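As a warm-up, study this chain.
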Amino acid sequence: MPLPAGFSNPLLVAIDRPDLASALALAEPLRAIAGGFKLGLELFVAEGPRAVDAFSRLGPPVFLDLKLHDIPNTVAAAVRSAARLGPALLTLHAAGGPAMLRAAAEAARAAGCGLRLLAVTVLTSLDRDDLEAIGVRAAPLEQVVRLARLAVACGIDGIVCSPSEVAAVRGALGPAPILVVPGIRPEGVATADQKRTADPRVATAAGADLLVVGRPITAAADPLAAARAILRELGIASGS
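Now compare it with the structure written out below.
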């Protein structure tokens, strides 16, 4: 399956750091081989828009993972603000409902900058017991597919789901939506707080377009070597 426009390979490195200096120090040696960089809440809350600007200058596309979830007007306004920062991808929660999803999609289209929205379905840290605790009777797979269908019907460009659901989501939605898959753990790497994981080859074979990898790279003794090993596992050359 072809990569989304602007991405050189499927590897999105999650840069979860509390300050811009340490985030850039981590990213600098990875910039030549990373398909993109994911910036999450920790860094964005600490450093704000200047973090997005700094990472945009590194070269690879920026995936701004803010998981927006609020009333439609507020989320639409946040999408407009985020679009001005220039990320390639931005997340919001599918559970925000159809009015919120449609408002966000309309705001992204109106911005005219090519920003693509991704709907987060069920977090990879949740399992069936966790869903039951918040009143969701469906199993994770059923809930993920339900939310994915809703998001795409409302004009959202892609879906974030775990490796456990990617095949079902691809089967339900077809080839068009971007499927971004976190919870990627190379063989032999601990799952930590992720409950629904898979190795890179399994996730891509199931239909994933982009793979989010954090701690297996960023907590490694040699992050660059760890990133290259994942690309080799995917059959992608990454230089010496």
